[in-house]
Design goal:
Elements lengths: L1 H22 L6 E9 L5 E9 L2 E9 L2 E9 L4 E8 L4 E7 L12 E6 L4 E9 L2 E6 L2
Parallel strand pairs: 1-7
Antiparallel strand pairs: 1-4, 2-3, 2-5, 5-6, 7-8, 8-9
């Protein structure tokens, strides 16, 4: 009887867990931070346009060191999209896959994007007792 009870208990827990996972919407808002930075290698850039979840903006001109951050309950987007013009007049754009590509949960962490000279890098950043730990995902 004890083995049957353990079996039923494990099956019930498994069923509850699977139901909760199935009901979780991939577009449900998650409390996390969005951060966009310009790397030193990018120098001065113009016409910086970006879109992350429900957050979009157009910055006419900026240069290193520059960053923006937003912390909110927002869905993890399928993609982060960005475009900019470098000092030499070259146009650049990036479309970074986000949802399903993060190595750890974004909940209560920051999803960071860094504009390099001609590319974009993506990180998940979390704070521990030892300081900030960044994990690159793109």
């Amino acid at each position: 009887m004890t083995n049957l009870f353990k079996y039923l208990l494990v099956q019930t827990c498994l069923a509850v867990t699977l139901t909760a996972c199935a009901n979780a919407s991939p577009t449900a808002p998650v409390r996390h931070g969005f951060e966009l930075k310009v790397d030193r290698s990018a120098g001065k850039i113009t016409k910086l346009k970006y879109h992350y979840s429900d957050f979009s903006n157009l910055i006419e001109s900026t240069e290193f060191p520059w960053s923006t951050i937003k912390v909110s309950d927002m869905p993890i987007p399928e993609y982060f999209e960005v475009s900019w013009v470098s000092l030499d007049g070259s146009s650049h754009q990036g479309k970074v896959p986000v949802r399903g590509h993060l190595p750890i949960s974004a909940k209560n962490n920051d999803v960071q994007f860094v504009i390099m000279k001609d590319s974009v890098q993506g990180y998940v950043s979390r704070f521990t007792s030892d300081g900030e730990v960044k994990t690159r995902f793109y």
